[in-house]
Amino acid sequence: MSELAFRPAAHADIGRTVELMGLGFPGAYKFSRAFLQWQYYGNPAGEPLGCNIEDGERLVGHLMGIPQRVGLHGQPAVVTLIMNVATHPDYRGRGLFLELVRRVAAMSAERGHAGVVGVANQQTIRAYETKLGFQNVAGLDAHVELLPQQIDMARALAAADFAHRWEDATLAWRLKNPANPLRIAAETRDSLIIEGASTTPLIRARGAIPRAGLSLRGSGLAAGPGVVLGLTPRGTARRRLAVTVPDQLRPSPLRMIWLNHKAPGDRLDPDRILFSFLDFDAF
């Protein structure tokens, strides 16, 4: 890999990144300049950190991380959410994926973040776990429902080893995804129900987040078919008119991964996670 140059990802690289993502994910039409500008540089939680690999003027590898404010074992923390890893088809099989993750994880630690969180698929989970030292926390649950599941958010937050700590600014930013605008479809006593488009026509992507501390509000009723992807602490959620999506019917079953910089032996309890599609780039 001596002929390749590893450099921090920069705003000026957006155009080349769009081209690379198109080569790496030819069926994913969301990767536009507007989308990456929003995802990387609009995030009110802080500046992104990422790594590019160049072969001369050619961008051949990319991985980005963005800050996310969370509750970690009950304490406030900032972690790095990694996303959008891509390698040019001509350069695959050379270990570039592993090197991208190592370098972005090192950048995350240097910035003082508590750790790195992400979501892996069947093709990458083994590498994250066995070669990069990440915890394979849990497979994300997936179900289709007609009515939103009821989550006791007070109990869920009290139990959670890991939970996104939403603020008005971060929620407003998340709702403005230019590739998939979201809306607050409804609210309950302690939750906001968020909806957007899913990959299946006529089925909404649906997630619930804690309402505490937020002034943004919803109106109306969330009903009709919705797909829910994520994790809730054991015993805190009750599904209504729902059916589980089996792994064999999912395009690629997803798994939450975690790496703690400050306590390398730390393990998240898979039964104590509050995590939804809003916490990563699912749709």
In short:
By secondary structure, the protein is α+β, with helices and mostly antiparallel strands.
Describe this structure in words.
By secondary structure, the chain is of the alpha+beta class. The protein contains six helices and 15 strands. The chain has helices at residues 14-24, 33-41, 96-111, 125-130, 153-159, 168-175, and strands at 5-8, 49-55, 58-72, 75-87, 115-120, 135-139, 141-151, 162-164, 183-187, 191-197, 204-210, 226-231, 237-244, 255-260, 273-276. The protein has a 15-stranded mixed β-sheet that branches. Strand 4 (75-87), helix 3 and strand 5 (115-120) form a beta-alpha-beta unit. The longest helix has 16 residues, at 96-111. It is globular, with a radius of gyration of 18 Å.
Features:
6 helices, 15-stranded mixed β-sheet, 283 residues, alpha+beta
How are the SSEs placed, and which strands pair?
Elements: E1 5-8, H1 14-24, H2 33-41, E2 49-55, E3 58-72, E4 75-87, H3 96-111, E5 115-120, H4 125-130, E6 135-139, E7 141-151, H5 153-159, E8 162-164, H6 168-175, E9 183-187, E10 191-197, E11 204-210, E12 226-231, E13 237-244, E14 255-260, E15 273-276
Parallel strand pairs: 4-5, 8-15, 11-12
Antiparallel strand pairs: 1-2, 2-3, 3-4, 3-8, 5-14, 6-14, 7-12, 7-13, 9-10, 10-11, 12-15
